Amino acid sequence: MATLPKGSIEKLLREVVGDDVPISKETIDWVNECAGELLRVIGLEANTIAENASKKENYRISQEHVMAALEVAENGLDNRTNAFLLTRRVLMQNLGMQRYAQEIQELQGSMALESQMKERIASRKAAAKTTSRDELLAEQTALFKQASLKASREGW
């Protein structure tokens, strides 16, 4: 099973409990196992959702698939009813998976803004490539003239 860096786990625990509380190596190992299991469960669920949604053999897990996996973990939407799944559902609800889903949605919103900015820049560059040299020179001359008029009005 994959594990996270123990230093990171200890740092996160220190943020929660404070520096004055001793944390044993066994506690760090146990939290690391729990975090690894959580990632494994969410990853497997996201993979299953992505695989079922895909029409091709090759597919990618997207943010929507992870969000759906968190929703499954939060609400226990699987049809299987053995004790392990019931326990997992109760644990996931107590852990507050909805908080993670909200954080992902916030990040997704900021990433959408970033991608819009990149698209604008790319479209400007593409437009500049299609503009002839004479048009660019005329635009530059007009901008210099505009700046000169503004400077003379403001008394530079």
Automatic annotation (TrEMBL):
Alphabetic keyword roster: Nucleus
Subcellular location: Nucleus
InterPro entries: CBFA_NFYB_domain, Histone-fold, Ncb2
Ranges where the Transcription factor CBF/NF-Y/archaeal histone domain occurs: 3-70
GO cellular component terms given for this protein: negative cofactor 2 complex
Main location: nucleus
MF terms (GO), sorted A to Z: protein heterodimerization activity; RNA polymerase II general transcription initiation factor activity; TBP-class protein binding
GO BP, sorted A to Z: negative regulation of transcription by RNA polymerase II; RNA polymerase II preinitiation complex assembly
Name listed for the protein in its UniProt record: Transcription factor CBF/NF-Y/archaeal histone domain-containing protein
Upper taxonomic lineage: Eukaryota, Sar, Stramenopiles, Oomycota, Peronosporomycetes
